[in-house]
Amino acid sequence: MKISVQSIHFTADKKLLAFIQKKVDKLDQFFDQIISGEVYLKLENTEDEANKVSEIKVSIPGTQFFAKEQCKSFEEATDLAIESLRKQVEKYKTKLRSHLSNHKEILAEVASAE
């Protein structure tokens, strides 16, 4: 899957970029029709230690999913955001399957009525 990573007001190192790519690629295991992803890494101006924000947007035909997490490290924030996206994708797949099975049942009823 093609992803773009933008680090805002700092430069992300290669290890962090590789970590993010690996985590986002794991979403393909749950749904193989993911088109692309966008990751935004930000440093919040707070006195709190948890000032690292990871925002991830994933595009699927017909819809988009978004997750935003703030933690002490970008890795932790990315992990939590990916977990949130995984849940969104699985819920979407369940709805999609339900819709398709209902559609097939209706077609079967129509075919048997003829």
UniProtKB/TrEMBL annotation:
It comes from the Bacteria. Pfam families: Ribosomal_S30AE. This is Ribosome-associated translation inhibitor RaiA. InterPro entries: RHF-like, RHF/RaiA. SUPFAM superfamilies: Ribosome binding protein Y (YfiA homologue).
